Records
---
Amino acid sequence: MLAPRQPEPSHRPLIAVAAATVATATGLGWLLQRAWNPKGDVNHRAAQALGAGAAILCISVALDSAIEHYRGQFKDRAMFVGPTMALLGLGAATYIAFRPEHANDRLPKIALFTVGATGLIGLAFHSYNILKRPGELSALNLFYGAPAGAPAALTLAGLYGVIAGEMLSGRDNVSTRLPKHTAALIAFSLMGTVAEAGFLHFRGAFQDPAMYAPVTIPPLAALSIGAAALTPRAAAFAEPLLKATAVLGIAGPIFHAYGIHRNMGGWHNWTQMILQGPPLPAPPAFLGIAAAGLGILPALQEAGE
Amino acid sequence: MLEVAEPRAVAGRAPDVFREGKWVPMRTYDDNEEVDFAIVGTGAGGGTLACKLAEAGFSVIAFDAGPFWRPLEDFVSDERDQGGLYWTDERITGGADPIELGSNNSGRGVGGSTVHYTMIALRWRPEWFQCRSKLGYGRDWPISFDELEPFYEEAEEALKISGPISYPWSRRRKRYPYRAHPVNAAGLVLARGCEAIGVQWSPLPLATLSAPRGMAHPCVYRGFCAYGCSTNAKQSVLVTFIPRALNAGAEVRDLAMVGKIEMGKDGKATGLTYHRGGAWRRQKAKHVVVAGYAIETPRLLLNSKCDQFRDGLANENGLVGTHLMTHSGPGVWGIMDEEVRCYKAPPCMAVTEHWNYDDSDKKDFRGGYAFMSQGPLPVGWAEAQAINRGMWGMKLRQEMTRYNHVAGLRIVGETEPQRHNRVEVADEKDQYGLPIPRVTFSYSENDRRLIEHSKGSMRAVLEGAGAKELWTDHDTSHLMGGCRMGDDPDDSVVDRDGRSWSIPNLWVCDGSLFPTSGGVNPSLTIQALACRMGDRISGMAKRGEL
């Protein structure tokens, strides 16, 4: 028997936050769109989108790891590495996004390769952190230990950047196999992010129905782009679903801002509650992956033809 | 000071526990209006039942001797001041092992002791309901685990218990409504120690939120739980069942001390006499439910004696007040090399129920115990050092410098129901002119063996975790029994539904129903029993059996 739902606090603060976020996003979008100048063939455009996706992932990781490692008081000096490498990745990926013709240059490639490798090392560190706790690989340690998925996002950003370079390498497989492999990687990235969001929303007992959104839309997007890797015709389904996933990546922080409002003291107590409440910078990871996915679709379709 | 002089729930409104300074509408009844149910007590038993009965459409008034708190504005982070949550009126306590009354085992105020409980929400071991026939000790309950399980679920859902995904003991169960909290360092000491000696441990299922719920915020791990939660994360009866009860049309009368149950010539209760706003008043009711917990419930039944019932109500067989049980609570403490800061987060976050479920002959006692990690606050801790270890002056100050390194464990230990452990009424009277209770308690030989055994287990766990300089203290927690339920009118006070054998419109709904004490905290079982009683009473009303 379910207990009756209790009335919730006023939604008014949410309206203000949402209005501000939408205004900021529109403003930035308008500026970006003016600067965005897709030129060249599908490979160029794919490289550009992969760079943009990697940059967004890096912003998400940089902010998230900075906040969370600050919460952990940077107790281990290695905790500075994550945010620092995310910033390096952000620089290199942004460069690629705006100057895709340089995507295959040695410097950004080395930088993004290093960023990706750091993500793997971070994954190992975080796994060790989880396993050394009493109870080892238990749900409790996965809930509250270092998050396994977060450093993996750095690896994805690195991979996207490296692939962006490969897109412009002029090698044979660029027009045939690489777009398909990349689509599969995007599908995998989405599912990984879904797993993390789903697991953490489960930790929050899905107390708000909106918490089901990231475990509903992105898996469909992952399925469709995964299918597109096999039969490029599926790309027609992938596009709207990836766009919906991108919207989730923007809407996520608004919902999380509301989640912070529902913690003790809400935004009046923001110094504590951005740490204890839902993570503000996490959801844009969906935006980053979706952007990369949307960018690879034309190349995928061309490869199919 | 935490003190409220005047009743707040008057004139058609009651305090809104979720909004500072705000009110919620409350239905009010006239004293002469005969309500369906007058409930004495608003804690785990009475508050829960008031909600269930009001939601089933009955007219209900629930009385509490204490105030209607507004946790958000009344409660502060001050151990001394928050002592006002306890019922500290004069009581007489005796026996070979007198129970300290008036602190953790008392509650005065709407919500009862759930306002200051440590929120541990554990179910009874299924076999304990038949512990005589299945485990060979104690008494069988008149109801089985299977009968109570749906109501455990209902109570857990109503309190949004935050619990682990799989609880290592008992039967397979439905998932807890909310996820477990992160275990604090004190809990991890228990965890490491248990892993070192090879017994299972678990994060505790707790009645404090790990995610938002309506107007209530998730727990911020303030650690003052045992002194009242000022954030409403604690899912006490005050912020769960009481708002639901008010919403369903129940009236709550705070600062209303019930002195006597009124009896009619037909041998049925007609209502009750209560003291509120400086005067004695009478409330008419078709049914009276006594839910004052194991001291006040027998006291009220005994104090309500009249010409027809010279030994008190429901006391033909002389069992009212007898077979009182507590939970023995020896604790073992030690010093860790690393900082623990055990006062952070809810005081108890990890548990082992190993010795509740271990039926091997390695145990030299009957019954069981669970132990939990502990988080004493500084004033209480300093007091304990002075009282238990005789520390004073510079020695006490030096000991307190190690407070951040302290880790400890304490059991909830089963005690046997013994007839001579009981509540009676004394000749002395309290400020209302009511005879005060006299409580007598002595441990049995078996209880003592259990206590000694538990000290050994706790030492092993603490040493396994690396604690040094171990020492032991003793405490008790919870009260149970006094109006036990049963299937035999000669051998129990009330039947399986809490209904008195001799007075058909007199009911009991609290921890005094327990025939045995079990080795876990009783609140969830009391609430499950109250939920069950609510459903049973509604069913009886439909069948015309009331």
Note: Chain B has a mean pLDDT of 96.
---
Amino acid sequence: MGKFTKEMVDDYADKLLIGLTPEENKMVLDEFEAIDKSIDVINEIPNISEVIPMTHALDDFAFELREDIAEESIPIDEALRNAGGVEGREIEVPKVVD
Amino acid sequence: MYMEKSISELHDLLKSGKATSKELIKESLVKSHEVQEKYNAFVTICDDAKDTPVTDELVSGIPFGVKDNYSTKDVLSTGSSNTLKNYVPFYTATVVEKLFNKGAVMVNKTVLDEFGMGGTGTTGHTGIVKNPWDPKRMCAGSSAGSACAVAAGVYPYALGSDTGDSIRKPAAFCGIVGYKPTYGMLSRYGLFPFASSLDHCGVLTRSVGDAAIVVDAMKGKDSHDMTSWDSSNINLTKSLTGEVKGKKLFYIKEIANIDNYPHASKELREHLENFHHILDKFRNLGVEIDEVSIDQTLLNAIPAVYVVLSCAEATSNMSNLTGIIFGPRGKSDKITEMMKEHRTNGFSPLIKRRFVIGSYILQKENQERYFKNAARVRRLIVDKMKELFKTYDGLILPVSSGPAKYFNEGDDAIDENTNVLEEHLQIGNFGGFPSITIPDGFINNLPVGINITGNCYDDANVLNLAYALEGTMNYKGQIAKEVE
């Protein structure tokens, strides 16, 4: 058994609001061990910490601000049409603050 | 059969009045239902699809398919996930809208691995997609339904998306063409995001010429996608001259040399032998092809880099799936429990696994070891490719370790050494490179593929190389036929 535990897996899942069955927990745990092993491959690369991380596919994006012109926004009834609970022009949710 | 023809052929028939858009749609819908029955390729079949006027636009009046992770107004768009099993968007993805505006007719939405996160075509919420060459085998994924339908002759093209190899590997397993242009040539607006820095839109067709036509029709800068760029100076269709004399390609020794696979299966051996045979055909056209050696440590890191980056980005992107704004709601009267119920019941075990891994990777204490180091290796790999692209027009490699796998084989590598062979197409996503797979032969009567990847913005050159190579073989326009 490595450094990962069932409790850790449940904790990370819970942070994402995802529940895991015991079988799913085991599947993740097994995968963690495999990923950790393969990350070792990365850490073997010499002077890796000196490389600037590449966070996107292209390095030469031309970032342009849009003109400050009001555009048509989404019609409220369209925006609400997939919501499971609606009251008037708003999405209905259970009370958030006790 | 109209739907077994190319876009250009269909356009000529429509323009000359020898066929009507209505006839094409009718045939495509009949074929859709047949293919659904046999291979389960679709989430939705648009039986109410209407014909459109035939214009000078090559795609006008012609049916096509859309992967179900593209938003389509008023048409169910599920991402093949239970979390969006009832989601009907109020807008249409830019690339689909562009095709609509040119008169193309969507006839179905195709099955994918849930949210594009898989390479087998087996994790969609409507069940597995079977390979039209052999239903006991997978199409690969995640654009499984699109690949299946194009190969089976439902229509000449379908849209796919590609985060690791999700267009280009299914194309190989189904004996067709799969093309993902340079990152940003196609707007991603309306594509359900999986890993935004790696996600590409693209197309599956039965010829390089059709791939050029469809991407020409879809490309362009989009104010809704800040990563899109102006490609109005590029005309892919007109770039297909077939003139490639003097072009230079390289293949990676560590991936394509049979000596690297001491336990090679018969299929792998034949696949690599065929690859080198095809290279000789290419050389006969005047293309120079060199063997280049790349540090094995860097190559071995490719799958890990992909897993780390894609899981981390996916975890973030999927945080809006709560069942509150869209998707089926949880039943609890407490909001946190309501969202947890939606996510717990909606996501399949396989993608829950990816999210939890992403969560772990993104924890502050783990970011350096996992996320940042993976992003650093991404740069090393991309820099190496860009250095080579200064000398070469492109990288040419075999796709996968052979033909389509049986369902019970999973997508795990059969030999530890074949890991990189299975996953090298991810290089194209790391660097946003244009990349195209075309069929290059048969093993055990099943198709196999070859891939050409080039430098960013050099799509016209990459496609022309693929076009020239396609012309030396007999697989252009082929339709899947079930083998024994």
Note: Chain B has a mean pLDDT of 96.
---
Amino acid sequence: MRADWAAVYEEMYPDLVRFLYRYVWDEDRAQDLAQETFVRALRTDPDDPRSWLFTVARNLARDEARTAIRRRRHLTLFRTEVVDKVAADPEDVMQRSDREQAVRLALDRLSDRDREALLLWDAGLAYDEISAQTGLARGAVGTTLSRARRRLVEAHRAEEDRDAAHL
Amino acid sequence: MPHISDGSLHAWIDGAFPKDSPEGQSVRKHLDTCPDCRSRLEDARHFVAEAGEILAAATPDLESMPAFEEIQARAAEADQEEDHGRTRSRGSLRARWRSFERLAWAATVVLALGAGWIGRTVLIDRGWSDPFHERALDQEPVEEMEAVGSLEDEVRPSSPPLSSEGFGADTGDPDRANKDERVENAAAPPSRRAGVSKTVAEPDAAGELGRRERSDAVAPDELELELDAVAASPDLKLDREARLEENVAQADTSNARIAAQPTAIHPAQDPWHQLPDRRRSPAVEETGTCFRVETGWSTGVASLPGRIELSRIDAETRPEDDVFGVAVLDGSLEAVLESVWAAFGADSLWVRFVIGPEADVFTIRAGHAGLEWVGEARTLSPSAPVQPRQRRGPVRLVPIGCP
């Protein structure tokens, strides 16, 4: 083992889940993918754990998106059971869902590269790591992030304005 | 000196310039002397902060994470499975060859038997008499009669052997007809066997002769009688009635639970009631289903206690209406479509979703697995004026009991 994987896991698991969540929008699925990423990392033992983890996680998230699209083409039947977990206040949950929906719509307005750079930055990667991950020149990372942030903020404001118009 | 680029301002804010690096020192010097860039820096700071807040609104609640040892165990397990897979792959080649060999032998035997059968049939058609076949036909009734107890000796003393005129030929001989009937009877379903055997056994119903035949062939009638007798047994009846009562009690409990469901959710728990009236569309009542459906342009509520089963059929599969659904997995929800949303109330599931781009009418199929409810909920009629944004429509399903 080249890296102290226990330490890497403790440090990066939440970041990885957060990063994946913004792709799959399902916490359990994001956790599943994060765990799968770490399982693969332990089996591979890469030189650069941080960069490797996010590369694999991003690929898994893309595969997940493709699977979701395929799944929609077929009848999907779910059998579910009531669980003990009860939301304390459904209205709170609903408001949170509205906020997330607005973020999701705003992120959808970004280009793939802008979104990826922004999410990698938010997951805690440095400019060098974002550059290695995305293929951007290091000097272009700041430019990409500035554009991504501005577009995200503007798209989000537009979503809020549109919601307010329907109230 | 040119102004600082937006990228460099964001990199400066993000701390991307190493301390005392030439780029960092250059930016610092320029900011000291350029009020425009200082103003732009403040704007950039706002964008950075606001973007961070926006993303923070979409952050999962990571209450717990699996122990690292668990991940290690999974990795070790995956390694073992991979090793085992390699071994199995090598082993499977040998197994496939063995099964191929067996198949080849089986095919050879089948071909040989088939060729023999076809050849024999052709020869018989051309007038060839098959001594083995004749002997078999001759011996079969004798053996059967021995088993029956020479019943036919009383009914019909003599039983001449078949002539060699071919199997199944109509000779007009009543004995031959009886024999054929028995041959057919031997391979017939039990009910047919019973009927034929009964007529044969009737002349000797009170005697010892034919008892074995009766015990086998007349079994269905006797069995029914026995079952009736057993069913009439007081102990069994009591047991059956007890089970029936238990089932009825369970059904009553389930029905009572359903009946106890509110036809309307308490206003304090129901954001629907907090909506302005103008945002509600007329209620639609779906008779013949399990739910009363109300629609509007905000949060919808579905009260579905117990186990639920929801499905979604893609418009390609079922173009006349689009079926939406949610799945509940360990307390979280897996969205079948984008923007499917649901949350648990104390005794209900709240559902909200976005109507697809082409769907003015959509269907929710919800099943209560215990009682197999199935309800279809339709929102607005296709002619209703719906703006794209307003497709984010709610639906409220109120249980009204199943027909």
Note: Chain B has five domains: 6-54, 74-128, 144-221, 233-261, 267-399.
---
Amino acid sequence: MIIVDNISKSFGDTDILFDINAKFTEGQVNLIIGASGHGKSVLTKCIVGLHEVNKGSILYDGRDFTAMNRRERIEIRKEIGMLFQGSALFDSMTVEENVMFPLKMFTDMSYEERLERANFCLQRVDIIDKNDLFPAECSGGMQKRIAIARAIAMNPKYLFCDEPNSGLDPKTSIRIDNLIREITYEYNITTVVITHDMNSVMEIGDHIIFINEGKKWWEGDRKEIISTDNEEVVKFVYASQFMQNLRDKLIN
Amino acid sequence: MLKSVFRRPEKFRVFRQMFFSEVDSIVISSIPLVGFLSIFMGGVISLQTAANMGSPLLPEYTIGYITRSSTILEFSPTIISLILAGKVGSNIASEIGTMRVTEQIDALEIMGVNSIGYLMLPKILATTMFLPFVVIISMVLCLVGGWIAGVQSGLYSTHTYLIGIRAFWYEDAWYVYYALVKTVVFGFLITSIACYYGYYTKGGSLEVGRSSTKAVVAGSVAILLANYVITQLLLV
């Protein structure tokens, strides 16, 4: 479980996050939604320690991440897997080397053991016989799946996904969403997903936080988001006429 | 940043692999270019020296002597380093800059890898340790170039050129030491400046190009300043 306790973040004189509190439970897909430029990515980067918070604390299963020194943070980071918006696969490495990289850096596994684990993770995300390709030779959806394989290689306790569906077609997006959900349930991971994609919200949102203007505006699950009367959430989620009509049908 | 660069690597085996890979991509791959430049520059230095030796009071072996001194003191350590600041500096800055803008560096950090040390230390050490060997190769090829040019054009004989090359060697031998000290400093400057500009790239592909240009300009300026300081300290 990850607890975000009253964190604030500013860059110079610009305040980005204001007193955010949240609880992300294990075995659940936790979504952070909100419009672009309202602080979702900054919040996530604060949680994983890529940005330092100005105030508040972040607790990973009771361990105060914000109070830790560099060495202690590395231990927590070994328990974190992250899927980046652009996949962030290492271009100079093959698919197989990308997945084996964290194992090579942080375990004493032999090459054969690392390869076996990498193949297991790649098979888990339906990537078969592509070990020797370079990321540039793979499609966007395939890159995301390889990035998921790399993220789960170390058996993480916490999985962060930054807009996992951006730039993907609806069918591939659903595939990625399902994969994230299955992995979360299968390994009882605390998963945090940043998304704008309303399909993802409806498909996999076990717990949803809506961030608006750097503040936590709303919290609930995918059933509650349909019926909420929170004006900002409704404006965001049901931005199109089609979605508004759909909402009316669902409520009625 | 330097403190993070020289922090103990997470896995020595990985560091060793990266180090030899950088020796290959930065140093070994530069040898053909350095060799080509050195042979032709050596030829030009000796031909120009011969063309400007109008006085009958100057012995002919002066051509070899001046070629040797120019090569060891300035051409091989400084000019070759300036050329490598362009080739290697832009390569490193754009490689690390691209990793920054495509979040690959963030991915390393999230995994718990000291990204500064992982990316920079092998490059800095490989260049600092092996650039002197490239410069020694350059010195030799430069002198060979001077010999080929002079003998081919009939301006001087092999014997005269070799006398010039060996003239006052006991007094001037330490110029090689001076040149290698300079090269070690230049190697460090080229890579650390390029790594810095690459690592702190912000934005997109346009900024990667800008970082690359800044790395080359700053690296070249730093080499010239360091050259002046080291010469003042060691030669004057």
Note: The interface with chain A takes residues 10-11, 14, 98-99, 102-104, 106-107, 109-113 of chain B (CB under 8 Å).
